[in-house]
Amino acid sequence: MLIKTNAIVLSTIKYREYDLIVKCYTKHRGVVSYLIHGALKTRKGSSKSAYFQLLSQLQFEELYKPNQSLQSMKEVRLSYAYQNLHTNILKSAITMFLAEVMSTVLKEEEENIALYEYIETALQWLDHDHDFSNFHLLFLINLTKYLGFYPDTSNMEQDFFNLNNGFFESKQQNLYSVSGEELSMLKLLLGIKFDAINTIKMNSKQRQRILAMILLYFELHLGDFKKPKSLQIFNQVFS
After folding, report:
1. What is the pLDDT of residues 193-205, one digit of tens each?
2. What are the structural domains, with CATH classification, of the chain?
3. Does the global pTM surpass 0.85?
């Protein structure tokens, strides 16, 4: 039975001469990988591979087989057509970086509509907005809500934030206690909406330090998380 589904592309790998293996985050099944036959064959007036750019938002029909590692899809189309997410060099860098992070941290093969809709809506906001330098920071902080380790904000007035346990504390407990400028920036990011993110002023060095802190937070709470390979290029683009 063919079922219509929506999905966001997390990664693509060339397979054989003309095929692609595409890992997607789907709205109703979580992470699913698909084998796309002939995706790299050029056809007059169209290119099937264009649908499978990183973080593209798709709708297609799938014939899902539970015991099969690679699923199949047909009748693929864009559920949302980005205006410049893949053509603006800065947005493209954010796209590559966040796709790598999500490809690592999103593993559940089950429905999580709230998480799917968060990613979907945030990417559409990025596509439309013109002041997005801090987007990736807020995106990653908010992502921890759905991954189960969003910072406990009940004692935000405290002078330290412990990356290891996710609590604000009155004293420095260990090497993972954050204070000073990093703490101030973290407090600004917590609870803010994307529409107000341009009110947080950071230079490139500050932004890199906050990103390093957030990635360390991911490492401490996700045992197999590794810093993205695209991080160095990403920092160079935004330096």
Report:
1. 999 998 999 999 9
2. 1-81 (2.40.50.140), 84-239 (1.20.1440.120)
3. yes
